[in-house]
Amino acid sequence: MPLFQHKPVSFASLLGLWRIEESIEELRAQLLSMRPDHEIPAFKPETRTKEWLAARVLAYKLLEKLEAPEMYLQTQETGGPICTDDAWHVSLTHSGPWVGALVSCAHQVGIDIEMIGSKAPRLAPRFLNEEELAAAAEDPEKVHLYWSAKETLYKVYRNRKLDFQENLRLQDFERKPAGAFAGRVVTDTFDQSYEVHYEMHPDFVLTYVLGPR
User: Fold this and answer.
1) pLDDT per residue as tens digits for the range 97-112
2) What structural domains and CATH numbers belong to the chain?
3) Which positions ≥6 away from 44 have C-beta within 8 Å?
């Protein structure tokens, strides 16, 4: 599993990106060497199994680098990962051959990768509100960043009941190779602003958030 990027993003927070090139058997062996009694679900699509295994191998490697106590990743009712040690937070993502992970004991975290293609611009009216559509007009890469940012905010909030157009709101910004812009999660009972960090890569975009605990 070749490491593409590995960097601290704040105190006690580490982000990693990997490109999957291993077989399912190799990834399973890596995971079980780190957590011998880890439960491994069965997925019919081979790619889904690879993504699941690779993301967890990466997360455990990042936790080791931060010298975190041994813990396991379990699945919440919302579908996202949760650490058995509640002092730590983790977010996972996968798209195409890439997997990413963000781990922290200082922040609630969210991370998302989106491969650049035709899907996001085509579906933009389903997940962007009118202001966001206007801000991203004629800029497909910005549409991808907005889509990725909303996925990241969704993961930080950790509740399925969100409308991407109404509850997840993004500010306009001048797109650069890397930077940050403002995002906000708004519901009847919750209102929190976040700084959404982003990176542009040749084949994909990356966004991540370090939120308050």
Assistant:
1) 999 999 999 999 999 9
2) 3-106 (3.90.470.20), 113-211 (no CATH)
3) none
